[in-house]
Amino acid sequence: MLCKRIIPCLDVDKGRVVKGTNFVDIKDAGDPIELAHKYYQEGADEICFLDITASSEARKATYEVIEATAKKIFIPLTVGGGVSSVDDAARLLQAGADKVAVNSSAIKNPDLISQIANSFGSQCAVVAIDVKKNPDNSWQVYVKGGREATGIDAIEWIKRAYDLGAGEILLTSMDRDGTKTGYDLEINSLAAKLVPIPIIASGGAGSLQDIVDAFKVGVDAALLASLLHYQITSIKEIKDAMRANLIETR
User: Residue 224: phi, psi to the nearest 5?
Assistant: First the structure.
């Protein structure tokens, strides 16, 4: 059985880690380089670095911060934000990223997923999908840091991203983001059954039980921000809870 992963998420805006609720009410949470190093030392399996305003501000991710972060950690680093071409992905990989996350640009140009997968391997191609539940209980994909609805059904987009060569899906529930009410287990369970690639659950973790519950519905990794940034729990406590529930972890 593959080990389940704990991935601290650094949402970065103007060089600082920030955290909000439902993608708004943004507050400062610290220095990305210091936090990445701290979580690496505490036993994180990977680090995810998302430049959350790069797409909406039509700019590229901050390469200098990524380079400095990559030098401080010796675990996989996923970077996203403003990636609109294979050249952008190549620059991030040269700066020290191990994987590249695409979101808004992949909706605009789905072939970008295939281009990255074909150029660097599907293991490098992470498709980040931000979703909100509709009144009819379907889920819709949003882009530009949750600012813009696409009209695209999330389940259809997950399947298409896999068909195009995505190596992982980073699935964020905007309804749950920052609320500490638990992951959206329904869509995470559907996604885990739909495609044979890792699903990373994101948005809503508020307790150790929430993380355990997500793994029990089939996700491969749990993305965490508030719980760690505000020291509500620690990576050690999370992994202890996983082991107590017979969930394989490093």
Answer: -135, 145
